[in-house]
Please model this.
Amino acid sequence: MALRLYNTMSRSIEEFIPIKAGKVGMYCCGPTVYNYAHIGNLRTFLFEDLLKRVLIASGYEVTHVMNITDVGHLSGDGDDGEDKLEKAAREKKKSAWEIAEYYTEAFFRDFDDLRMIRPSTTCKATDHIRQMIDLILRLEEKGHTYQSGGNVYFAIDTIDDYGKLARLELDRLQTAVREGVEEDEHKRNPRDFVLWFTRSKFGDQEMMWPSPWGRGFPGWHIECSAMSMTYLGERFDIHCGGIDAIPVHHTNEIAQSEAATGAKWVNYWLHGEFLLDETGKMSKSGGEFLTLSFLKEKGFDPMDYRYFTLGGHYRSQLRFSFESLAAAKNARGNIVKHIRGLLKAGAEETGLSGEKALGYRQAFLDAVRNDLNTPKALSTLWAVVKDGGLTADEQYSLLIFFDTVLGLGLDEVTAPEDREVDPEALRLLKERNEAKAARDWDRADGLRSRLLELGYVVKDLPGGSVLEEKM
Ligand code: AMP
Ligand code: ZN
Model:
């Protein structure tokens, strides 16, 4: 089956046809590094990693570019509020540069923990001010901008298809009062957006650069247009992000990019739906949110979270709960256990030739190539685990192949051996004894599960706890 992807632009599933045969250029909007990523943000990056893995499994060479937003993203998407990094810097009494560096590192720790494949190019907004200024100059030359109150704005009525991605009804929007958005009296149209802020907005902004319009800093949207064009060219295959980017961020990226080049910019737009927590939308700026580190503290492995996200389709909302995460942990644990059993029986990765095994391979590929249908792909995986008609080599080889797309680290599972007790397990046992002494039962249970994953069962005996090898 050909690779089929849902294109937000056409609101339909389309066959994927790359611009250059065998190659894909893909741009993903990266994190705004003023705080830790929450597990909702990470769901979006996991969806993008899945997409990339499916493209690779389909034989494409993928050039994946991701930006790091370290300047210009204001508290409100509509140019209102303060720069998120500057605000965090003030609150934490650090420089904006220190904040950016600290949270970028934290982001990539999560990224690696979740076994996401690093982008071919990661680019920081603050390293590409020149490219942004050049793009704004191009827009200025073509008459798409105006200066007002010291800022440079993009005038949306200079193009005739503004809002096509979100299918915005502009007449209605123009008259409607946008709730919670501080009106900018300098805008000719409320939907116009800032390309370059000067001192007129925040005189004490720490990150500022000289520009033809005065010292200042870029608006948020221009960075993605400038950097994607720098690394992928003026037309490329795929642009993705979370669903919240459609009405403002991606809408404005398209407006300015196509106004500058005079041509179509991106062929396929893909958006991941939100992860919801028990209270509804998970929000980074709202303060309280769940991080991957917190899940780890509770005794979960990052792969449990990855497995959990694969259980839902990327275009459906996914509700997070610790019960569902525990179910994911249990399911993944069973796959790992099954692989250990196969390895103990001497299974090896071999080429697949049997009709049945090839059928499973095809069913898996058909599922993921049909707009990344991971719930269906996982049911194929379970069918393989349960199919006693396959040989151990076939089962093992299929699972390892599936994992090139699922990214669960199944290739690192090893056979259980008669071995000395793993020092890591001894450390966890000690930690668990301390947790028990402190009557922190949740933590003690979490540590028991982690030990189980390492292949040890904890036995609580009258004289203390001991470890026993599983199986
Ligand atoms: P940010 O770091 O705030 O720029 O967000 C990084 C990515 O996370 C963006 O692509 C957002 O669309 C996405 N995102 C934000 N909240 C959620 C959520 N609750 N679930 C899934 N993705 C989200
Ligand atoms: Zn972007």
